[in-house]
Amino acid sequence: MHRRGVWDGMAHGLDWSNLQYFHEVARTGTLSGAARRLGADHATVGRRIAALEHSLGRKLFERHQRGYSLTRQGRRLLAIADAMEREAARVEAHAGSDAVGGTVRLSTLEGFGNFFMAPRIGGLLAANPGLVLEWLTIQQLVALSRREADITVTLSPASGARFRSEKLTDYRLALYGAPAYLDRHPPIRDEADLRAHLFTGYIEDLVFTRGLDYLGDLAGGAISARLQNSSLGAQLAAIRAGLCLGVLPVFVAQAAGEGLVAVLGGEVALVRSYWMSVSEDDADNPRVQRVCETLRDSVMAAGDLFMAEP
Amino acid sequence: MHRRGVWDGMAHGLDWSNLQYFHEVARTGTLSGAARRLGADHATVGRRIAALEHSLGRKLFERHQRGYSLTRQGRRLLAIADAMEREAARVEAHAGSDAVGGTVRLSTLEGFGNFFMAPRIGGLLAANPGLVLEWLTIQQLVALSRREADITVTLSPASGARFRSEKLTDYRLALYGAPAYLDRHPPIRDEADLRAHLFTGYIEDLVFTRGLDYLGDLAGGAISARLQNSSLGAQLAAIRAGLCLGVLPVFVAQAAGEGLVAVLGGEVALVRSYWMSVSEDDADNPRVQRVCETLRDSVMAAGDLFMAEP
DNA sequence: CCTCGTCTGTGCATCCGCGCACAGACTATG
DNA sequence: CATAGTCTGTGCGCGGATGCACAGACGAGG
């Protein structure tokens, strides 16, 4: 068995160092400049770029006499490398702060957080004067690390044994449109009629969280969204303004008030679930428990709001 | 000059490879397991973990006879490494898709996107039947790479010469509360009265986008938010529900309709700006231009909505 | 108790990636 | 035209990181 060489790539996945080199070359535009910043030789940088291109099977740079310039595919990769760089920068920044005083960090999906929980969180703050709540509203695109927050609410239980997960509730989704939109179009009688319509939905490429690809479940998957937005709030706004149809949780539509009509009421029946997860380490922290209880109790008190008929 | 060694760390920043090794050890819990997955020897993995700890000056793992377990500081680092891992995974996933047919990717801040532009985007889609719009609603926490989208709307012009930026408009912000909240509390006559109140705002740690730290500008910086949320929509919901006070763009408050009263109307006068940036490469793409025009025209047509008095 | 399988930790010889040095090409400045 | 300062690309010799082998410790299972 021979040793692993640069050109073999790694056994599993790629070498993050090469991405780091790539990022620096893309930033500075030259091998030499990147080499200076990395504390390495330009020859080394060139070799690692070549290795990365080889392992991806793609040309990332246009070799030019005066430097390197990104190809189209390189530009796409740079967006990702940028994101990694941003994370890496946090290592040094956050290294000192050990955080935590009276703060609890909670992360929830947009629908549950903004349209259900936000108006109901007052009691918790009133009853606990020392408590500061840091609340991340996450969109489907950022499958945020569960370690980033003390408590997370997501669509599926946390994998791995380091977390305790419990189901909060199931909830129903339905297809909605605005009266103005429905008046302008012929009546919709069955799923087949849907194909002629304009839809909004999540951005397909970015759907990490499994279970948010609603439209695929409709009309045999023949529907796709021409207006794709990462935010539920934007989708709601577009539907209410009468631009298009879209799938919404029933409780979100109710919270939004007037201006929404369920299309094909009974036929389109989607159900998803909210799960609450808390890290094993924090499970017995009283503050964290307090917040968990509030979430649980609020869902309980809401009765059948989540499973209501549209 | 001697060569750079593992123990020296890098000249600038840390070695991403070491983070990759760290991530794998944290995941598997053993050096040997990580080594197998990485296609390396357990001795190598152990040395690199030691090097990372040395360069950070922190102990990341508890050495145990049966494996490695994370320390408290290691757990914090893992959250970051997880995020990097997630990005790295996209490299291989996205490597194939070269995207782009008739799609344009747009990213906007939540206020501008969800509360202004979303209801006004219908004409663009109607006039361009082939166009698919991928629309990222970004929150303040994710200072998303501008390369991630074809067009971005942010609070400041893009730095660097690779982008063309233009100012869309200034906009005004004011302090709002719900009638129910204001009725329950003594009248607010000047900024000093604000100190007794409960506020919502962005998560302080995560404010990357400069210019979203509204509360710091009020009452001499003596105010801080006990309810911190990364999403404007959630803050709006909390304010409307009468839980607290908060700063909102005036046009957002107007779009939200009833249930909001401006506090200290004239005195609290905050102004920010929206900038639209487009990559140099895409500037002459007709589809991209079409979307840019729509944004420009919509803002223009809105008249003084953005600078309206509360 | 013994054996097997797993884990970490540590010398040691080896080899591969590294920095170095130099060549060739282009630009800017005078 | 000449010179100085960039840049990339390519051999070459070297040394440090790597894989290997082995020791020691622990748990499971017969």
Could you please describe the fold and organization of this structure?
The structure is a homodimer of 310-residue chains. With 310 residues, chain A is α/β, with parallel strands linked by helices. The first copy, chain A, has three domains: 6-94, Arc Repressor Mutant, subunit A, CATH 1.10.10; 103-166 and 280-301, Periplasmic binding protein-like II (D-Maltodextrin-Binding Protein, domain 2, 3-Layer(aba) Sandwich), CATH 3.40.190; 170-272, D-Maltodextrin-Binding Protein, domain 2 (3-Layer(aba) Sandwich). The first copy, chain A, is 36% helix and 21% strand. Chain A has helices at residues 16-28, 31-38, 42-56, 72-94, 110-117, 122-127, 179-184, 232-240, 250-256, 286-301, and strands at residues 61-64, 67-70, 103-109, 132-138, 151-154, 163-177, 199-201, 227-229, 245-249, 261-263, 270-279. In chain A, strands 3, 4, 5, 6, 7, 8, 9, 10 and 11 form a nine-stranded mixed sheet that branches. Chain A has a two-stranded antiparallel ribbon with strand order 1-2. In chain A, strand 1 (61-64) and strand 2 (67-70) form a beta hairpin. The longest helix of chain A is centred in the N-terminal third of the chain and has 23 residues, at 72-94. Chain A starts with 15 loop residues before the first helix and ends in a 9-residue tail after the last helix. The mean pLDDT of chain A is 84. Chains A and B meet through helix 1, helix 4, helix 5, strand 4 and strand 8 of A and helix 1, helix 4, helix 5, strand 4 and strand 8 of B. Strand 4 of chain A pairs parallel with strand 8 of chain B.
